[in-house]
């Protein structure tokens, strides 16, 4: 091998080494920037989480409910953000080492489209579950009626809501399939009582007695701690030739209406 050939070989080898070192430095910088971005995202989410908890806990009737809901949403946002960030990092690193990422992006788009068509019901459930938790429509322990089935909520995920009825039967509802939702214990509950009396009874006197009893209950420690407001008397609900029906309501803490009733 001639001197020129050796010089050309060493020049190419040196060029490869320099390019390799430059590529490794760029990759290290990309990873470092991604790591720093993760730290900043985490700190930002923590501050946002603390702010939202402080802003909502004043209006929460169930202690800790707002914190659990916000932490759940924060965890989902963090997972999605990290996955997207490292996907971009991997593509950037591949481009730095000379890999053509065009076919990879095209293939990812085709795979994403196929998965989207195949898992559209799953995506619908996840999106519905996200807004279900975000809007605080229902919580674990609430007495609710979902699609005509009543019971107590035992578990909530981003895909399903688990409801147990009075007979102990467990009903699992995909979030995307929930068409009607009635929550009897959101923020406050109410006990509505219909009192049927003979037609000739003095209803004003009966209402006065009922108000007095309601005030006495509100003054007692056992009932006063769960009663949010004094008893409301709506007056005569209906009447017939023989009877008259009065309607009253007690507004209570969530799920405490039966105790007061």
What is the fold's blueprint, element by element?
Elements: H1 3-56, H2 65-96, H3 102-118, H4 120-134, E1 143-146, E2 149-156, E3 160-164, E4 170-174, E5 181-183, E6 189-198, H5 203-219, H6 221-224, E7 232-239, E8 243-252, H7 257-260
Antiparallel strand pairs: 1-2, 1-5, 2-3, 3-4, 6-8, 7-8
Account of the 3D structure:
The chain has 261 residues and is α+β, with helices and mostly antiparallel strands. It contains seven helices and eight strands. A five-stranded antiparallel beta sheet has the order 4-3-2-1-5. α1 packs antiparallel against α2. It is elongated, with a radius of gyration of 32 Å. The relative contact order is 0.08. The mean pLDDT is 78.
For this entry, give a set of tags:
3-stranded antiparallel beta sheet, single chain, 7 helices, alpha+beta, elongated, 261 residues, 5-stranded antiparallel beta sheet
Continuous helix count: 7
Give me the side-by-side strand order of the main sheet. 4-3-2-1-5
Largest sheet: 5 strands, antiparallel
Q: H/E series, N to C?
A: HHHHEEEEEEHHEEH
- Give the DSSP E fraction (strand runs of 2 or more residues): 15-25%
Shape: elongated
Q: Can you describe this structure in just a few lines?
A:
This protein is of the alpha+beta class and 261 residues long. The protein has seven helices and eight strands, in the order ααααββββββααββα.
